[in-house]
Amino acid sequence: MPEFTADFRAQLLDLFKWRRDVRQFKRDPLPQGTFERLVSIASLAPSVGLSEPWRFVLVESDACRVAVRECFNACNKDALGGYSGERAALYAQLKLEGLSDAPCQFALFVEPATAQGHGLGRQTMPVTIEYSAVAAVTVLWLAARAEGIGVGWVSILDPAEVAGILDVPPGWTMIGYFCLGYPSAESPSPTLETEGWEYRSDSSASIIRR
Amino acid sequence: MPEFTADFRAQLLDLFKWRRDVRQFKRDPLPQGTFERLVSIASLAPSVGLSEPWRFVLVESDACRVAVRECFNACNKDALGGYSGERAALYAQLKLEGLSDAPCQFALFVEPATAQGHGLGRQTMPVTIEYSAVAAVTVLWLAARAEGIGVGWVSILDPAEVAGILDVPPGWTMIGYFCLGYPSAESPSPTLETEGWEYRSDSSASIIRR
Question: Chain A: residue nearest B163 by CA?
Answer without folding.
Answer: A210
